[in-house]
Amino acid sequence: MFFVSSRIYERSLLLILGVLLLGGPVAALAGGPDRVVVVADTLNVRRHPAASAEVLWTLSRGDVGLVERRAGDWVLVRVDRGRGYIAVSERLAVLYTEKAPRTVKKKGGKAAPVSEKGANTSLAGIRKAVQAEEKKLLAVRKEERDVIRELDRFNASLSQARKRERELNRELAAVEAKVSAALKAKSRVEADIRVGRKRLMARLVAYHKLNQIGEMNTFAASGSFHDMVVKKRALARILGSDAVLLTRYTALLRERKGVEAQLSAERTALAAAAAEHGKVLADVEARYRKRAAMLKEVREKEKLSLAAIAEMKEAERILEAKVAELAKARKALSSKNRFVRYKGLLKYPVTGKIVSSFGRHKDPRMNVTTFENGISIRTQRGEPVRAVSSGEVLFADWLQGYGNLLIINHGESWYTLYAHTDEMFKTKGDRVDAREVIATVGDSSLSGYPDLHFEIRHHGKPLNPGPWFKK
């Protein structure tokens, strides 16, 4: 998939301005810039050249003003409504210098200046070109957002595939345990059959000898009638015992047949589970490779930085709404172990390197400032994630922009958030202890690396986690 950079479009827009206005790239000429055109959607006009100064009114994209004085990155402009200061940059407003009045040749050979009407027509053309490029830029930015959202959806599907893989691993282990138990049962039955067969063979030999002597001869050899009765009763008991032995042996043979049938069924189930596991594993690997390719493309496209920022802001909005919703429905927790008491004593939820800290961060390439609501800790995928303090699981599910997310309620409107996990061991409503393993680290963040995003919030407001951890 090929994308055209939004930065390229923005620079192209400025280049068009320069070509239309100056016949070349936008630049300050020797005479100094005396006009400014607004390229931002809206731009504040302030009383003084400072971001904290009072806002007098706002200008819209395409508005043009006359520059009276320049003060660093600020200029004093005059428009129909009056005078005021605006900030200038390639993303807000662009300065340009008008050339000397352009002339045209009359039929008599003399030159005549272009009329005011002609100048206004030229300005209208500039604005039209700006609007056309803006439409292209909006289309490109929409495409950028679509890519980021597609990546988030893809991470969700990859997470589900990995979850199914773990379930199949457990199913395989259970089936293998059943096969092992069936094999042990078969071995036990075979051993019992061998013992029973040995006993039956001994009894058959005895029967054979008795048959050769004859029953009457055996009884006739008795010394008295009493001895004959005793022998007859003894023989009856022996025959009864042999009948029981034969019945047990027959039952063992039937049991062996049943065990063999069960073993065959378990082996069939094992083969089916292994085949499904192979398919799911292949699907996971294919999805992982595709995601790796998508991430590589994302990293190679500077333009996606702005789209990623927009998506992070949207994800933050969704998260804040979710926290507020959950806070309304939460149950009051005991304040016996107040979370605030542990400030400066907490241990990190996972071992690793902090790659993103709390607060404002400026991207020097994109000239964009973002705000990080927590910290990101880079580690190994599958590394155990531990609850920093005891509490109750308020949320345990996939959330756009945060992947598999766990939110723990610590009481008194204190919450901790654990984002971009892989396998979650807790569900909504579960109680957790301090340092209890609640999940494993995943790799669903836009970085593509196994980064755990961690936040501390009070009444929904994100706080700097740094001072809460033990030094």
UniProtKB/TrEMBL annotation:
InterPro entries: Cell_wall_metabolism_enzyme (IPR050570), DUF1058 (IPR010466), Dup_hybrid_motif (IPR011055), M23ase_b-sheet_dom (IPR016047). Residues 151-185 form a coiled coil. Transmembrane segments: none annotated. Keywords: Coiled coil, Hydrolase, Metal-binding, Metalloprotease, Protease, Zinc. Gene3D superfamilies: 6.10.250.3150, Glucose Permease (Domain IIA) (2.70.70.10), SH3 Domains (2.30.30.40). It comes from Desulfoluna butyratoxydans. Residues 371-465 form the M23ase beta-sheet core domain. GO terms for biological process: proteolysis. Its cofactor is Zn(2+). CDD domains: M23_peptidase. This is Duplicated hybrid motif. Pfam families: Peptidase_M23, SH3_4. GO terms for molecular function: metal ion binding; metalloendopeptidase activity.
